[in-house]
Every structure is written in C-alpha cells, then in structure tokens.
Specification:
five-stranded mixed beta sheet; Alpha-Beta Plaits; single chain; Arp2/3 complex 21 kDa subunit ARPC3; 3 domains; binds ligand C2E; TIM Barrel; alpha/beta; membrane; about 55% helix; Nucleotide_cyclase; binds calcium ion; transmembrane helix; about 675 residues
Length: about 675
C-alpha cells in the first residue's frame, strides 16, 4: 500500500542498534529456555493439551492472521491457546507450543529468519514474565475446570497475569519498531498499546474460558475458532475502512489526510536524524495544478476528465520515486518527497513531475496536452508542518503562474504573509465560516451618469470590522487574502450577498446594476461563473444587473484560464469592467482582446485632473480611446465639482466618487437614493 511506501523507503534509523537489539532478545530467550525447559514438563499431558497445541498452530495460519500489507504488526491468535496452556500446564509446554506456532507462521508468511527469531524471543520472554508472576500470585496452582469454576483461581489474578504478558510483549515489539522506523519511543509504545489492547486483550481473556471448556468436553474447543475468524474479519474490515479514509476514490492516490500523516510521521524522525548529523534531512512538498483541466471537462465531459486525472495520477506516481503522490481535490495534486539533500534536489524532483506530463495524454484517440504549474516548499526551511508547507507551496505556485513560468520554489520575499497577516487571515476565515459572517459587510457606492445625473450603478465594496482590531483596510485585506484559499470563500460570499441584495431591493433599485470586485485567483477556475449562474437562476435576478470588475494583473497571471472564465460570464450576460485602467502595462492589447463592457479610469489620474495638465491629457485620451472602442467609461475618485465639470466636457459616461457619495451600507443607500430622487423631482418641477 502506498501509505507505507514513505516509511519503508526510509533507511533504518539506526541499523546497528536494531540488529544488536534483535540479537539480544534472541540470546536472552535462548538463555531462559535453557534454564527453565528441563524439568518444566508435567509427567503426562492430557487430551486438552494436545487439542490446544493443535489449534495454536492452526490459529497462526493465514486463515486467522490478519497480515495485510497495511499491517506493521499482525496479531497472532495462537496466544489464546498458548496462554490457556500456560494456565493449565505451566510455562514449558506453553512456550514450546508457541515456538511451534511461530515457526509455522514464519513459513506461511515468508518471514525472514531474523524476524522469526525475534518473534520467538519476544514470546519466550513474555511468557517467562507472565509465568514468573503467576508463580508469585498463585503458587503451585494450575488452572482446570474446578479451580476456575470454584473460584480457587480468582479470575482477577488471571487478568493481572495476562496484563503482564501484554505489557512485556508490547514493550519488546514497540522497541523493535521504534529502532527500525524511528519516531518518539513513548508515542510508538502508546500507539502499539492502543492498537493491540482490544484484539490481544480479547485473546488473552478467552484463555480461562477455553480451559474450562476443554475440561467439560475437548470437542467444544474448536468452537473457539469461530470468534477468532470473526475477529479477523473485523480487523480486516476496519483496516479497509481506515485505508479508504486516506484514499482518493477516483485515482486511488492518497488524499490530503494521507499526505498530512506522511509529513507528520517523517518530521519527528528527522529531528533526531538531524541531531545525528544525517544530511538527507529535507522533505519537499510539491503542489501541482493542471492547466486547462476545466476546459477538458467542459468540452469532453466528466468521464473523459476523470480518465485524464487517472492518467495524470499514474504518471506522477511513476515519476515520484520515493515520494508519496496524493490528490488534494479537483485538478490539484501534491507530492511529499522525503530524504532530500537540499532545495536544488527538490527542484529537480518538481521538474521531473512536469516532465512526466510533457507527453500529451491520448484519450479516445485524441491527444490532450496537460501541462501544469508546480510550487515547491521544503522542510525545514519553508515550514515546520504540513499546513505551513502547503500554504507556502501554494504561494510558490502562484508566483510561478504570475511569472508565466511553470515551476517555483517558495521564496519568503514574495510572500506577504507576516505572522500578523497570517493571524488576520485565520480570523477572516473563521468569520467567513461562521454562518452569520461576523463583521463582514458590503457597502455600496453610487455611479452617476454624467449626462443625466441619474444613478445607474453601484460598486459593492468590502468592509470588515475585526472583533479586536476594528475596521480593516479592504485593500490590505484583499492583498493578504488573494494569496490564500480564503479568497475563494470571500468572493463566493460577496457574490451571494450582492445577488441576494439585488433580489431584496427589487423594483426599488430598478435599472441599477451592481459591480463586484474580483481578484486574480477568482478567475482561475470557472467556479465563480457556476456560482453566479446558479444564484441568478435561484433568485430570478436578471444577469444584466450584475457586473464584475477585474484588474489587469488578474490577466497577467494566467491569461488562458482567465479568458475562458470571462467568456463564460459574457455568455451569461454579466458585464465585465476593467478596473484601475491605466495602471497596468498592456492596456491596449487587453482592450481589444477581452469581452469588456466598461473601463474604469484609475482614481490616481482623476484626482489630478483639475490641477495637473498631464493627468488631464491622460484622462482625456483614455476617454477618447475607450469610446472609440465602444466601451463605457467610468471615472473613479471624483472628489469635487470642478473635476465633475471637466469630465462632462471630456465626454465621460459615468462618475463615481465622494463628490456624489461615499460607499454606504444598504439601508443608508436606500435613504440616499430616495432623498436624491426627491431633489431631482423638485429641481425639474
Ligand atoms: P477599487 O476597486 O479601486 O475601489 C474603489 C476605491 O476607491 C474604494 O476604496 C472607494 O472607497 C474609493 N473611493 C471612492 N470614491 C473615492 C474618492 O472620491 N476619493 C478617493 N480617494 N477614494 C474613493 P476601498 O473601499 O477602500 O477599496 C479599496 C480596494 O480594495 C478596492 O479598490 C478594491 O481593489 C479592493 N476591494 C474592495 N472591496 C473588494 C471586494 O469585495 N472584492 C475584491 N476583490 N476587492 C475589493
Ligand atoms: Ca473596483
Ligand atoms: Ca478602481
């Protein structure tokens, strides 16, 4: 199973210590046997003994042993019979039967000789400890139906002796696991105890019952195999369930949880190795996002899309080597690569992943190109846990896209996430996840038609009052959110709220459209278009009443995907405005290529219109250019009457700014509109 691949690929934490430990256990066991076997046997062994011995050996065959590939330590059911032998006939017969069972299991399960030797030793020592305690608490007693049923052998003592066996056994095994695979010893021991308590506890505690049964009628003993078989089925099912919870059902890769666990297992081990001076102590998280997957899905259908993902999963797995490949959802994959020398090697791995996708995928005879972008974050330089690494790999991936590249290693300079901003982000996420959206509000700022003075549009602007910090600057907030997955939640919330508001206003705001600002990230997938289409349908709000404002930087990041989303929005009937016009680089090109309805002249030019001749010249030519291309022109940042008059002269269509109104909450806006209507009516009367 892939889950364990990461663990097994790890070199033994300390091979020589592990070998020494196994050797010590084996030698100690041989010593114990030499001392206690001679003279340890009763003069005669009844049918019950032979019956237990036969079943002990039968019980350690694959019919009863769950030795799935997911299993680090299979539980061997023979112990219920051998423990019964110990209670009834003493240490020596019990341990001999157990050794027989271990030998049979080793053959069945093809265990290496050292492993069989260790298992034998571990059982000998567990039985030796339990038998010694047994002799102390119940001197010269042997269990039979009378001692058990008459209370001559209190069950409490049997439980104590069983507990001793269980503790010693787990101590020996988890120390071996710890020496081989690493981790923190107390944690390994605790996990082993927890996992083993129920199955082995149940086996040990069934021993007194077996003894009693055997004395009533030996022929009843085989009935004990039925519960054993049931226990095996149950452990198998629960293993399957546990595995399914860590798997992506479509591709069979690990899911987010599996990756998280792989990192969580590796990190503490690394801390120790680093102390030991090992140099393979870096782990990389590679985050890969496919290009153009959405289009494949839309054009060729989800079935083809699924097959593409399966093919990609296969190629990534092939290229991952010792890495663990997982799918985070949609077309996002991640790879955890352990034991790296340095960041350079992580980068090479990432390049290898991209190379694996270079060949087009052939689906139904159709070659499909599946490039992608990879962001790389390396432990410990770029993060101390899975969450942090993922977040930084995400930042790196967007960096790559923004540069028009397909690979980037996380560079802290390009990350704007100071600890303060990260905590702000976490608070915002919490606010968004709470149903009432604590403190998140939209204000609306009117847009006025210069020719008539009528209010024809509103821009929705985010306001967030942080419970402790108070109002947060929206520009600052967007800058932080834009680099994270919180942006998606935020935009979807804003879209919902604006459309609900439009539905609620109804005729009161008839003919007025509302513009929503969207950021770079929102346009990378078609999700926003899906959401808008669904909400418009549900609320019966006309699509012409909604508008989206995008900036040029949104286009630079990933023009192909953004264009696909914009084209869909246009088909829906939602107008697109180019915001902050004049501040980007390639304005002319965008004006021609994009499905735009409107440009908004950036307020930095409009603010200087009345005082700076250069600004005035720029604003006038922008207006001319936009009008020549048949686009509506909005001037933002109109703060005074003089600017307003100059814009009227220059032939600008709409204006927005403090001269008319500041952004307002909905209730205040309705009052403002009513007042304004009254005064316009009064003027014209
Ligand atoms: P923007 O899209 O350019 O929004 C216009 C900004 O100009 C608003 O700032 C508005 O309050 C301000 N403004 C309006 N009239 C005047 C004026 O006469 N003079 C001056 N000096 N400023 C004026 P705000 O609300 O602080 O928003 C800042 C930026 O934050 C916005 O710039 C936009 O980029 C971003 N933003 C705000 N709300 C959202 C949102 O819901 N989603 C996204 N993605 N971005 C948003
Ligand atoms: Ca805007
Ligand atoms: Ca703007």
């Amino acid at each position: 199973m892939k889950q364990s691949a990461l663990r097994n690929s790890a070199p033994p934490r300390n091979a020589s210590r592990f070998v020494a430990y196994v050797a010590t256990i084996t030698v100690a066991a041989v010593g114990v046997l030499l001392v206690s076997l001679p003279g340890g046997f009763p003069s005669s062994l009844p049918a019950a003994f032979w019956c237990f011995a036969a079943f002990a050996i039968l019980a350690d065959t694959p019919w009863f042993v769950q030795a799935g590939p997911d299993d680090v330590m299979p539980a061997f059911p023979s112990v219920c019979f051998t423990f019964a032998v110990m209670l009834a006939f003493g240490f020596a017969p019990a341990v001999l039967v157990q050794l027989g069972a271990v030998a049979v299991a080793a053959v069945w399960l093809k265990h290496a000789a050292w492993r069989a030797a260790f298992n034998a030793g571990q059982y000998v020592l567990s039985f030796a400890a339990a038998a010694a305690l047994f002799d102390v608490v119940l001197p010269d007693q042997r269990a039979d139906v009378h001692t058990i049923l008459d209370g001559g052998m209190p069950v409490l003592w049997i439980v104590v002796v069983g507990g001793c066996w269980f503790l010693v056994n787990n101590l020996l095994v988890s120390t071996a696991v710890w020496l081989r695979f690493g981790g923190r010893w107390p944690a390994v021991f605790k996990t082993a105890l927890g996992n083993d308590a129920l199955p082995t506890g149940a086996l040990l505690l069934s021993a007194p019952g077996l003894v009693a049964t055997a004395y009533v009628d030996v022929l009843l003993v085989p009935l004990a195999l039925v519960p054993l078989f049931a226990v095996r089925r149950m452990t198998k099912l629960s293993l399957q369930r546990a595995r399914a919870a860590r798997l992506d059902p479509l591709t069979g890769l690990g899911n987010r949880k599996a990756l998280e666990r792989a990192v969580a297992n590796w990190v503490p081990e690394h801390a120790e190795r680093a102390e030991g001076g090992a140099d393979d102590r870096r782990l990389a998280l590679l985050l890969l996002d496919l290009d153009g997957f959405k289009q494949v899905n839309e054009a060729l259908g989800h079935r083809v899309g699924d097959r593409l993902l399966e093919e990609v999963a296969g190629r990534l797995t092939g290229a991952a080597g010792a890495g663990l490949v997982g799918r985070l959802g949609g077309d996002e994959f991640a790879v955890v690569v352990p034991h790296l020398r340095d960041t350079l090697q992580a980068r090479e791995h990432a390049a290898g992943m991209l190379a694996a996708l270079a060949e087009p995928v052939l689906l139904d005879g159709l070659p499909i190109d599946v490039g992608g972008s990879v962001g790389v974050a390396v432990y410990p330089e770029h993060g101390g846990d899975f969450e942090e690494l993922l977040q930084h790999a995400d930042v790196a991936m967007y960096d790559a896209k923004a540069r028009g590249d397909n690979l980037a290693v996380y560079a802290p300079e390009s990350d704007h996430n100071t600890p303060e901003r990260l905590s702000l982000l976490a608070d915002l996420r919490r606010a968004l996840e709470s149903p009432e959206g604590t403190g998140i509000e939209l204000y609306y700022q009117p847009q006025v038609e210069l020719a008539t003075g009528a209010v024809v549009g509103l821009e929705a602007l985010l306001r967030w009052r942080h419970p402790v910090r108070g109002p947060v600057d929206p520009e600052e907030l967007i800058k932080v959110a834009e680099h994270s997955s919180v942006m998606r939640l935020l935009t979807l919330r804003i879209v919902d709220e604006v459309i609900n508001q439009l539905a609620a206003w109804g005729p009161a705001a008839d003919g007025v459209r509302v513009a929503v600002n969207v950021s770079v990230r929102d346009l990378h997938t078609g999700e926003i278009a899906d959401r808008i289409a669904a909400r418009l349908r549900e609320t019966a709000v006309d699509s012409s009443r909604l508008e989206l404002e995008i900036t040029e930087s949104a286009l630079m990041a990933d023009p192909r995907r953004v264009l696909a989303t914009l084209a869909r929005l246009e088909r829906l009937g939602v107008a697109i405005a180019l915001d902050d016009f004049g501040t980007g680089y390639s304005s002319m090109l965008h004006l021609r290529r994009l499905p735009l309805a409107e440009v908004k002249i950036d307020r930095s030019f409009v603010l200087g219109l009345a005082t700076d001749p250069d600004d005035a010249a720029i604003v006038r030519s922008m207006i001319d250019l936009a009008r020549a291309l048949g686009l509506r022109v909005v001037a933002e940042g109109v703060e005074n009457e003089r600017t307003w008059r100059l814009l009227v002269e220059a032939g600008c269509d709409l204006a927005q700014g403090w001269y008319f109104a500041r952004p307002m909450p909905p209730a205040q806006l309705i009052e403002w509109l009513a007042r304004r209507n009254r005064s316009t009516v009064a003027h014209s009367a």
